[in-house]
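can u do me a favor
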């Protein structure tokens, strides 16, 4: 087409030269014409001009027409469409590609949208043959006296020709080719097909091509859900999608909307009253933050990488649609739960100072202040609910600040508790909050005094985290969040962070011990251990003497687990951990393995704990279930793995017994808040905290959902004294499971139907044991035991013995509670 345009320009120059020469040679004739009456001269000149114009157009058409491009791009229209990633329930999670487009056949585009567009862009669309002559003549007359050439008078067909084949630079030669192309398009395509392609092809701002994509981009709705006001707003975009973008220039967009509504009245689509109502209707536009679709960014980036590896750059323009196993409600809950936990943790840390400052001198007028403040938000954008605020006044233990949406807020009382000292003029310069300081604020939970929630000064978390949730019976990933904010840190902690699991590793050691003859009732001495220079300790600093494995795991006793691993041996412990999908090479072959000194990822841990939940099967995590192209042809489909013998990792009875130990942890042990908060007792799990609280974990499950939470710093360092898996990771797990389990009825894991287990009396009542290890065949104790204590006197036995046991209430020492380190 560039060659045709160049030829048209050369032709125009040649014709101009020809007519100039003709003008000079006809000087005598023109002299004689001056002798004629005025009306005759006008008639002669008009006829000559019309003849010249006709010859010019005919000549140009005759030369240019054969060189016009084929219309394959229109007759076999196959536009670029982005890669889209959807949740299992069909909700959009992400899209990748330079052009947002959702192709809709014309019959699926609402009539009101079609009519509104035609009313303002081409009211005579169904009457002309591609070019509306009266409009062109009017535009030519206006442009004759204007250097801007602002009047185009292009029909829908001409706009489509220009959009697909021509430059948008305003040239008369381009206009000639545009007209000819319009005629050619009209000769080969129906009016409905032309309108359909146009409404799916035209650029409308926000990277949206076509009206369905624009409806989603601006309003988060499909076309069929739009109101008259929203429809008119979109219909006004084709003329100037950049300047009339309602997100970036609402005032101009509203003026354009008013023009469309007026045209809709003129053509009889709506009444003046309806136009007035539409003009006054408040618009709920999607913000830039809304369009980020932040909830699944880590998971969808995993999908993008896989699809790009398979299809290359074509993945971003061939309209591929990927269905994942993610459940939208669960994904949102996971995103919010992890962020809430990290921000709650951050509020316990020392104030690090404002993010920056903007110069707001006293006496600055309101307009100048607004301009200065508005520039801040480009460099310090809101991070979802973690809002950027510019302080405008600090006085009387309260501060006022402006937000990115123009709202002014006031913060006082509890909202300033973490920064109270920074409000003083005597505070250190790098910590002081003053007029012009750029800070982060968060809206708290609603109260009677603050129905919408009071604002709180906070700061962006430095710590990171991950939350992964898996369906144990299928391996489907239900939710995955790999960090606080994908735009800040693309490192996916759910799949890429190899961290020490701490005490959340202990259940694998206990599970291995069951195969050697141990049972939940096996006694082990919780006493100090020294191995060379290594002198491990319990997280609570206490040594409680002989206790059962059930009690020891509930209280997360390190000494007991080390003695159990001594019995199992580190070599067998590593191998057994490999049965759960953990990388054997990343687990040390020494006794520190008992305390989780190896390396795992949160996704690995979620799969590993699923083995206990599903009766002993190790399934591969599944994220992508289907890929289809723009024509809805299935390119890839995957079914979840089944619970078959070839996927068995441990026996069902082992999974049941180890699960019963994890249930003890979640009801009476270090994670008792899980059952207390969710008010259900079919929960299983284990806290984990490494040395100096560098890594904090909670790994747990209900039969239908296995979820793991990890919290830590990218560059490993202590989370702080008093922090633990039960205190920092467990709250996020509870928040998430509140949503994930809302429609799941309580159901505890039952003993295997095929037997292999018996119950026998233990130190604190009956407990389970493998049938072949019943009686004297199993391990009643592990390691040396201290000499028995003298029997209690009658008074103490009467007070705390049979009556306490008969009541079913465990002794007070059984309650694990929240403790720091090693849990």
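np, heres the sequence
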């Amino acid at each position: 087409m560039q060659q045709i345009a160049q030829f048209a320009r050369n032709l125009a120059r040649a014709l101009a030269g020809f007519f100039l020469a003709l003008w000079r040679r006809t000087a005598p004739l023109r002299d004689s014409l001056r002798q004629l009456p005025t009306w005759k001269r006008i008639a002669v000149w008009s006829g000559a001009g019309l003849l010249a114009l006709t010859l010019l157009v005919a000549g140009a058409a005759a030369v240019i027409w054969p060189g016009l491009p084929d219309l394959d791009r229109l007759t076999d229209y196959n536009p670029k469409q982005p890669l889209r990633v959807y949740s299992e329930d069909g909700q959009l999670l992400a899209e990748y590609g330079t052009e947002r487009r959702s192709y809709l056949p014309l019959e699926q585009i609402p009539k009101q949208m079609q009519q509104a567009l035609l009313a303002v862009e081409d009211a005579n669309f169904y009457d002309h043959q591609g070019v509306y002559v009266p409009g062109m003549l009017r535009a030519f007359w206006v442009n004759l006296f204007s250097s801007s050439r602002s009047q185009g008078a292009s029909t829908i067909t001409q706009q489509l020709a220009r959009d697909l084949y021509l430059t948008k630079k305003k040239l008369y030669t381009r206009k000639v080719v545009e007209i000819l192309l319009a005629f050619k398009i009209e000769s080969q395509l129906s009016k409905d097909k032309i309108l359909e392609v146009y409404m799916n092809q035209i650029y409308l701002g926000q990277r949206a091509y076509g009206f369905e994509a624009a409806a989603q981009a601006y309003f988060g709705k499909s076309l069929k859900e739009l109101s008259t006001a929203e429809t008119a707003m979109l219909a006004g975009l084709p003329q100037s999608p950049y300047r009339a973008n309602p997100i970036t220039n609402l005032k101009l967009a509203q003026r354009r909307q008013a023009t469309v509504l007026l045209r809709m009245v003129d053509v009889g689509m709506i009444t003046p009253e309806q136009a007035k109502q539409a003009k006054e209707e408040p618009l709920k536009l999607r913000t830039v933050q809304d369009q980020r679709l932040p909830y699944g960014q880590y998971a969808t980036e995993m999908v993008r990488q896989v699809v790009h590896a398979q299809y290359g750059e074509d993945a971003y323009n061939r309209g591929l649609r990927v269905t994942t196993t993610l459940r939208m409600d669960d994904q949102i809950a996971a995103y919010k739960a992890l962020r809430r936990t990290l921000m709650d943790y951050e509020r316990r840390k020392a104030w690090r100072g404002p993010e920056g400052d903007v110069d707001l001198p006293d006496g600055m007028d309101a307009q100048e202040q607004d301009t200065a403040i508005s520039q801040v938000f480009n460099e310090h954008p809101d991070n979802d609910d973690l809002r950027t605020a510019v302080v405008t006044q600090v006085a009387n233990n309260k501060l006022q600040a402006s937000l990115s949406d123009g709202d002014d807020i006031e913060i006082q009382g509890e909202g300033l508790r973490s920064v109270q000292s920074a409000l003083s003029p005597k505070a250190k310069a790098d910590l002081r909050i003053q007029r012009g300081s750029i800070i982060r604020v968060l809206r708290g939970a609603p109260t009677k005094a603050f129905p919408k929630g009071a604002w709180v000064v906070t700061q962006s978390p430095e710590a990171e985290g991950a939350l992964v949730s898996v369906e144990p019976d299928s391996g489907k990933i239900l939710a995955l969040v790999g960090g606080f904010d994908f735009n800040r840190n693309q490192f996916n902690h759910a799949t890429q962070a190899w961290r020490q699991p701490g005490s959340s590793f202990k259940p694998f050691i206990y599970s291995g011990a069951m195969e050697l003859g141990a049972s939940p009732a096996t006694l082990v001495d919780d006493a100090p251990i020294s191995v060379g220079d290594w002198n491990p300790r319990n997280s609570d600093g206490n040594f409680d003497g002989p206790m059962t494995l059930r009690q020891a795991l509930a209280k997360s006793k390190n000494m007991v687990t080390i003695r159990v691993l001594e019995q199992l041996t580190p070599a067998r412990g590593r191998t057994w951990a490999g049965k759960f999908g953990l990388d054997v090479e990343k687990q040390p072959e020494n006794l520190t393995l008992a305390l989780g000194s190896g390396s795992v990822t949160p996704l690995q841990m979620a799969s590993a704990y699923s083995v206990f939940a599903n009766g002993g099967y190790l399934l591969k995590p599944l994220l992508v279930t289907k890929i289809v192209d723009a024509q809805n042809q299935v390119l890839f489909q995957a079914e979840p793995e089944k619970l078959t013998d070839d996927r068995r990792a441990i026996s069902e009875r082992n999974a049941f017994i180890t699960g019963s130990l994890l249930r003890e942890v979640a009801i009476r042990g270090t994670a008792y808040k899980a059952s207390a908060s969710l008010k259900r007792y079919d929960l299983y799990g284990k806290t984990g905290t490494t040395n100096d609280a560098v890594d904090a974990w909670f790994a747990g499950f209900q039969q239908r959902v296995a979820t793991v939470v990890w919290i830590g710093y990218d560059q490993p360092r202590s989370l702080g004294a008093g922090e633990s898996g039960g205190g920092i990771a467990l709250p996020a797990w509870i928040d998430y499971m509140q949503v994930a389990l809302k429609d799941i009825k309580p159901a505890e894991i039952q003993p295997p139907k095929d037997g292999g287990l018996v119950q026998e009396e233990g130190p604190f009542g009956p407990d389970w044991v493998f049938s072949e290890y019943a009686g004297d065949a199993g391990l009643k104790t592990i390691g040396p035991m201290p000499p028995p204590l003298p029997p209690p006197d009658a008074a103490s036995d009467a007070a705390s013995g049979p009556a306490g046991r008969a009541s079913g209430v465990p002794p007070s020492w059984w309650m694990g509670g929240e403790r720091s380190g090693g849990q």
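The two ends are 71 Å apart (CA to CA). hope that helps!!
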